[in-house]
Amino acid sequence: MTRLVLIIALWSIIGTAAGAALGALLSYTFGPHGTEGLILQAVSWAIFAHLLIGMWAGYLLLADRAQRDIVPGASERLVAQVDSADAESIAEALRGAGATDVRQTQTTSV
Questions:
Q1: Is 40 in contact with 48 (CB distance < 8 Å)?
Q2: Core-most of 20, 62, 76, 104, by most CB within 10 Å?
Q3: How many CB atoms lie within 10 A of CB 82?
Q4: Ordered mean pLDDT values, 10 residues apiece, the chain (110 residues)
Q5: Residue 87 three-state SS
Q6: Contact 50/19 with Cβ under 8 angstroms?
Q7: Which of 7, 10, 15 lies closest to 60, judged by CA?
Q8: What is the residue-wise DSSP string for 52-68?
Q9: The pTM is what?
């Protein structure tokens, strides 16, 4: 999550700088001319580019499915209720699939 926030913040900062530069360029070429026009154009385009580029960066990161959603080595837990006759074969199948800790507990029904 920290990586996602940092990347979005970085692209938002880049978008702000690019938008301010575009606004300054538009103010000098098309107008409105003067200090007020420069400020208006630079701030407006900076806000627009900041939001646009930051949102696109977040969207592209969240839409990227190149990485697995479940990271190997992360703590995962599977809880299942099975018959005691099947419990040992299921535990062996889980161990064979790479499970590192398989526990069997007895439950009592009321």
A1: no
A2: 20
A3: 12
A4: 88 96 94 91 96 92 69 64 76 80 68
A5: helix
A6: yes
A7: 7
A8: HHHHHHHHHHHH--SS-
A9: 0.56
